[in-house]
């Protein structure tokens, strides 16, 4: 074996093993969000709490997740990726234990907030780690693998949550999160080496932080895309908040049936949309894909309202529109992310922190609103499915597209 081939095998093997680390880190926040969704009604009954307050525990998790993005992102620019991830995972495991031991809804809400603070490290840094270790063809190759796994893994989480609720009880979901967090922490301690080559303590100094965030906050393109995701992800999270109550409590699905329905809708819709977006974006561009996604989301909301008026609260009147919504919203995330981050590779840590904060703030704010709306019919979620993508579309046309056209006109005059 030549020296070159030896070097290649040595450098590639750790990267392949790190892929497992990234997979666990990337899935942590999503699993923590969805795994106990089938247990919302059972938690309300067990703790004698209003269902709206139990739903609030979903949104409060997003509040912690969003706020912590603004800390972990800049911290990784100064200290690297490994130490912030370790801190976040320790907080997450301790908070998961606190949630499992909760005896009141207020304890659970506090525990979920602390969980969000811990999970924020994995949510904000896994993309940075991915960019650190893969480049060129490897980035595309392993990025495709990761996307395929996540598309099928995360929608399957409610199935696990449904079986845990059916056979053990709502605390079982948090026991699984404790184990998952400890396994992720073990992998990080035993196999994860620092991936950042550009972190420096000077990047934690106040002038650099202020300059970086000012550059992002004054960019109409970055903020425009981020607000688009704020509304789109907010609508997505509203279904996670309202859906379990609508399908389990009102329509009468069991937690296990809810899990399988969620998996079927989510995996098929998101996988097919991801594949279609990859093929079409090359020919039609990201602008067209974004508009198609928002139109599909609006149509899904209109179908929910129509189904409610014609069929009442009916399983089939809900499933098809929600399937369409999953399909449409999948076109938003990759295209908005690409448009927002392209000009800011030199401050990717800060860009990721602010972008993630605004995305999750949408989930927290719109999800909190959804938690206080009636969950016994399709009207609330249908209205959200219409208003959120319309708001995102208006922001895109007034901030992003208008700015792009003015830049092109300026360039043509020059």
Topology diagram in text:
Elements: H1 3-34, H2 40-47, H3 51-79, H4 82-100, H5 105-133, H6 136-153, H7 157-167, H8 171-191, H9 206-217, H10 220-250, H11 255-311, H12 315-329, H13 332-341, H14 348-371, H15 379-413
Query: Approximately how much helix is present in the residues?
Result: over 70%
Biggest β-sheet strands, sense, barrel:
none
Shape type? globular
Could you tell me the strand content as a percent range? Answer: under 5%
Give the SSE order as H and E letters.
Answer: HHHHHHHHHHHHHHH
Query: By CATH's scheme, which homologous superfamily of the largest domain applies?
Result: MFS general substrate transporter like domains
Describe the protein:
With 414 residues, the chain is an all-alpha fold. The chain folds into 2 domains: 15-200, Growth Hormone, Chain: A (Up-down Bundle), CATH 1.20.1250; 205-403, Growth Hormone, Chain: A, CATH 1.20.1250. The protein is 85% helix and 0% strand. It is built from 15 helices and no strands. It has helices at 3-34, 40-47, 51-79, 82-100, 105-133, 136-153, 157-167, 171-191, 206-217, 220-250, 255-311, 315-329, 332-341, 348-371, 379-413. Helix 4 (82-100) packs antiparallel against helix 5 (105-133) and helix 10 (220-250) packs antiparallel against helix 13. The longest helix is centred in the last third of the chain and has 57 residues, at 255-311. The radius of gyration is 21 Å and the shape is globular. The N and C termini lie far apart (56 Å).
